[in-house]
Amino acid sequence: MIVVSPHFQNLGDILPHLIQFQCPDSLFSTTMFFIICVVLLLCYFYMRSTVTVTRSSSCLVGKTAIVTGANSGIGYQTVLNLASRGCKIIMADVTDMEKSKLDIIKFTNNPNVFAKHLDLSSLKSVRDFASEILKSEDKLDILINNAGVLVAKNNRTGDGLHPVMQVNYFGHFLLTHLLIGTNSLVSSQFHVWL
Ligand SMILES: NC(=O)c1ccc[n+]([C@@H]2O[C@H](COP(=O)([O-])OP(=O)(O)OC[C@H]3O[C@@H](n4cnc5c(N)ncnc54)[C@H](OP(=O)(O)O)[C@@H]3O)[C@@H](O)[C@H]2O)c1
């Protein structure tokens, strides 16, 4: 509260005192600014230390990989990286991947990029996909269970499961399970099920 003393006769007398009153506020703003900068710097260094970019140039000629959710996002970028290193890729996604596939072949000059339909929200689709892979591939070196959804339109899938759980976990679990125990060697850096 500002108490105007009777000694102050005009605005010129009051003004310097008002400015003095603002000092604690500006000190508060400066402190807050400093704290925010420190927090942002800490976040930046935390992210730098935890987020990594693959810069491997290992040759993958002769290897076969499946990438789920390969039509867009991280899956697409993963296929691009693996294909540029000579890997044979089977892109698996629920949507039409023809354009993504042709783009990747064009960018990487690797013709061994194939697209196969896989709907992880359907157990039947997962089974059909796995059985086609087992028929068509002699071996499988890399399985990247990348596809995922955050929200779903319906509460339940046709299998009566929660859609997010089925796409992100159950579908991938079944796929991995069906591909194990054959001549396939299944490995994944991020989703280790074994
Ligand atoms: N981006 C991030 O910051 C972040 C952070 C943590 C974890 N992740 C995880 O990383 C993975 C990829 O993330 P992202 O950002 O690349 O996601 P995204 O851009 O949404 O890509 C997900 C891919 O999964 C496909 N997909 C969706 N439902 C499917 C289904 N039923 N069957 C088969 N494929 C299906 C999508 O197909 P269409 O879109 O073509 O329909 C899309 O190609 C996800 O598992 C996500 O949870 C991402």
UniProtKB/TrEMBL annotation:
Keywords of this entry: Membrane, Oxidoreductase, Transmembrane, Transmembrane helix
Pfam families in alphabetical order: adh_short
InterPro entries, alphabetized: NAD(P)-bd_dom_sf, SDR_fam
Parts of the chain that traverse the membrane: 27-47
MF GO annotations: oxidoreductase activity
Gene3D superfamilies listed in its UniProt record: NAD(P)-binding Rossmann-like Domain
Keyword Cell wall biogenesis/degradation: no
Residues in coiled coil: none
Keyword Transmembrane: yes
Highest taxon of the lineage: Eukaryota
Protein's name in the database: Uncharacterized protein
Source species of the chain: Tenebrio molitor
Taxonomic lineage: Eukaryota, Metazoa, Ecdysozoa, Arthropoda, Hexapoda
